Structure formats: C-alpha cells, structure tokens
Amino acid sequence: MDYKTSGVDIDAGNETVRRIKGLARATFTPGVLSEIGSFGGLFSLGASWRDPVLVSSADGVGTKLRVAFMTGRHDTIGADLVNHCVNDILVQGAVPLFFLDYLATGTLSPDIAEQIVGGLARACQASGCALIGGETAEMPGFYAQGEYDLAGFIVGGVEREHLITGAAIAAGDVLIGLPSSGLHTNGYSLARRIVFDVLKLSVDSHVPELGETVGEALLRPHRSYLPVLRPLLGKRILKGVAHITGGGITDNLPRIMPLGTGARIDRHAWRTPPVFRWLGEAGSVPEPDLRRAFNMGIGLILVVAEPHVAEVQRGLLEAGEANSLVIGAVEGGTSGVRYA
What we know:
- The protein is built from eleven helices and twelve strands.
- It is of the alpha+beta class.
- The strands form three sheets. Strands 8-10-5-11-9-12 form a six-stranded mixed beta sheet.
C-alpha cells in the first residue's frame, strides 16, 4: 500500500501547484511579501493608509458548481467566486487587497484545477486583488469522480471615515438598483430542479425564450460592481449598499436598514430579465418565492439621499454603468420590504 493507491496523488498536487504559480503571481500587487507555496501569505498595507479598517468575507459558489460539472467548463466558476466576495466587502466601502481559495476534490485533476485557478486569477487581476495563496485538498471518498467544492476568502481595506454602515439611512432616501448579469451565484438548486428535473433539458438544449443554451444562461459569471462603484467610494454620498444574493431583495436589503425603517420597491421600475420569467413560468413558482430565490435582475442596491441621486447616477454613468434605475425608497415605521 502507498498514498497514491489510497487515492491521494502527491505528484498531481505538485503539478497543480507548478501550473497555478504563474497564474497567481500575475495577480501580485506591491503589498504581497510572500510566494505561492509558503505556509502563510504575507501582505503589507504600506504607509498610504491613515486609519485602515480591514473587511473580510468568505463564500462559496453553491450548486452552480454542478452546472460546471455538467458542461465540463471550469474557467468561469473562479470568477463567480471572486466577484461575489468582492461585492460582499464593497458594500461596506472596502476595496479588495488579497484573496485565498480552497479547492477540495476526490481525485485531483491538474487540468481542471488550472482552469479554476485561471478564472480566479483573471477576476483578481480585474479587481486589483492579489491571489496570495490557498489550499488544494484531495479527499478520496468525499466527492464523486469529477466533482469538487470551491470556497474563497477575501480581505479588503477602507479608511474608517469612509466606512459605509447604513446607520444614517432614513425615511425618504432613494433606492438605486444596478442590473445583474443573470442568476449570479444564487438560486441554482431551484433553477436546476426546474430545468433538469421538470423540463428534462440538458445543458446543450437551446432555449428560444433566452436565445442561448441552458449551459450558457446558467454559467454566465457573477458580475463585479467594483469598477462602477469605485469612483463613488470615499465621497460620503452612499448611505448604504446591499449585495442581492441568496434571499433576493426581500432578505438582503433589510440587512443594511436601521431599526424603524423599511423599503418600498416599485416592482415595475425595471423589466425582469427573460431567464427569471422563463424559470418562473416553467416551474410555476409563486412570485414571492421567485423574489427570494433570485435577484430578479437587480444585483446591487444603493441607498442615497434624494439630493444626491443625480450625482450618483452621473458618477455611475461616467464609470460605465448606463442602466442604473431608481427602484424605490426608504420608508419609516415598518421594517422589511414592501413591493408596490
């Protein structure tokens, strides 16, 4: 007996590290002080910060991974993970500093691992975030052949005076919605049941209502909002920001609202993208359940005082976001979200 016949191939692990070193090194920023392969990643904040607050988050990709398994395409799932994590710290005003990943699988494939890390690295580079390390775990008996799990850990920074906390949100403030690029990384258990169990489609099935295949629609990467929001950070005109993930607007918007405030959402303010209408009709999903499972076309919500709405939308437009919409307002007295 040896380790390899027990299911763990150390040579495959070493080959994986060799392949991904260059991908990760290409993301390094001046703050990185260590190499890939060290026991811990080192990062220096440098002297440019005055009173920095570190903001961290951890997340996964959920059952969107199963669509990647079905298509055999693994080069976008890493971008999903990075962009989700970037958005999660962005809502508090933080910009990403460094990222670590955790990849666990039954049998390690250097080819698949390289595709996954390639997606991680591209998204990190686009966000100015250093991929400084991670863990690749080969765990025979825990995962079926060809399957894996992926998680990410991000650390960002923001000057204390520029933190976005939501504490100043008040009745009369305006809600600005930014469009999503699709399902992002949430609602896939419901989507997969509708598509593959109810409709009996395959990932290669073309859907006329969507103008693309099932695989293309479901694997569209989670959007990063950092490029369009970065110019507004530090200007103190964003009272609150909500990333619309699992739970939809219904559950995520209240997370940033002070006690004694709620939100009114104009459900007619934007046109629901075809993929959500198609899933809802095909699965006969009640509207409240659709709103809690999916983002319904709004991936980020900004809370802004009414006098600053024009300034914020102008800043978004200059940064490349041409489709921001006023989708509602903050109300006093009743917590939660009311759709009108």
